[in-house]
Amino acid sequence: MEKLVIEGGKPLQGTIRVSGSKNAALPILMACLLPEGEVHLGNVPRLRDIHTSLRLLNILGCETDFSGNDVRVLVRDLKTEAPYDLVKTMRASVLCMGPLLALKGEARVSLPGGCAIGARPVDLHLKALEQMGAEFELSSGYIHGRCDRLRGAHITFDFPTVGGTENLLMAASVAEGETILENAAREPEVQDLAEFLNAMGARISGHGTSVIRIQGVTSLRGAEYRVMPDRIEAGTYLAAAAICGGDVFLEDCPCRELDAVLSKFRAMNVNLEEQDGGLMVRRHDALQGVDVTTQPYPGFPTDMQAQIMACMCLAEGGGVIEEKIFENRFMHVLELVRLGADIRLKGRSAMVRGVSSLVGAPVMASDLRASASLVVAGLAAEGRTDVLRIYHLDRGYEQLEEKLTAVGARVWREQE
């Protein structure tokens, strides 16, 4: 098993290109089950979760090819079972449920796994699909869904679930009649999926708002599509540049989709300049503490909570971070404390008091974004930081150490 070794204290200087979005690419890959004809996707990041999705598509009867950052998918003989061995490693696998029910009237999908950051039950997905005519039973760790034909329905989510909205967008695209989704997720990745479905011939409107309308069509066709840039990867490198100081240009940074994050970093005394083709990040004065509350989009994203906490560890003053999305997303706190951070937990809130310096130490990653926060903190810590369990990082960051090394960081891999 590999670990990441960081020698901290180096200012960053140069350009980092932001890769394609993992959280957009995963549902888009599941949507490739739907069309008659070949799909060509560009700007797909080379990540562990992407390879897992492609293996799942192969098992479900698709022919796939992944070359560079381009993916080709063609459905040959669609199957209906997503096995435990794949689904246990990646929560997004459950997104095959909607397409399989819509096309085959049946889906047998293992209960999903992924990061251990909270319950994240799929009941919102199933409840909505039941309104469209599906029936479900849970047996031997599998969700078994059946229907004669999915039909449009007026669905109001109890919570703006990203995965639930995505599953329903795909299912409703080829269902009978009109489907209306209220209290739908507004995240940019949901919008990207809707744009991809429309490129294949779907009739979706209102994506980006809390009310989405889908007019079902009889079939979809193949298409070419470019996946959006990864706003969380961009935010992570923004955090790295902020904590280390220096000048870093984030090429292909999705600034509009990062508005809530940019606002908080500006309040922390980071100079951000939107330019043609990306974002210039400069920080030459001391960081300032801020208060942060995670919210569904367009609020501050939960996937950036750990990274901004790492920056606040070295900020002047203090700040409170309140986590309102997941109930178990402070597992990085104890690891940051090992580096010398001053953080107090109370329920879903963390009080962070800035310290004068962090000192390198061995730390252990517990999930994808926690891993990223430990890398951010390690870049600024004095001495050597060893980040263990970096397989989490490989799920969400393409060429992380290469990108950081190119802007002056000292980061490399070793065997544990």
UniProtKB/TrEMBL annotation:
The modification 2-(S-cysteinyl)pyruvic acid O-phosphothioketal is found at residue 115. Its main location: cytoplasm. It catalyses: phosphoenolpyruvate + UDP-N-acetyl-alpha-D-glucosamine = UDP-N-acetyl-3-O-(1-carboxyvinyl)-alpha-D-glucosamine + phosphate. InterPro entries: Enolpyruvate_Tfrase_dom, Enolpyruvate_Tfrase_sf, MurA_subfamily, RNA3'P_cycl/enolpyr_Trfase_a/b, UDP_GlcNAc_COvinyl_MurA. It is an enzyme of class 2 (transferase). Residues 7-404 form the Enolpyruvate transferase domain. It comes from the Bacteria. One of its GO terms (molecular function) is UDP-N-acetylglucosamine 1-carboxyvinyltransferase activity. It is found in: Cytoplasm. Cell wall formation. Adds enolpyruvyl to UDP-N-acetylglucosamine. This is UDP-N-acetylglucosamine 1-carboxyvinyltransferase. It comes from Paucidesulfovibrio gracilis DSM 16080. The gene is murA.
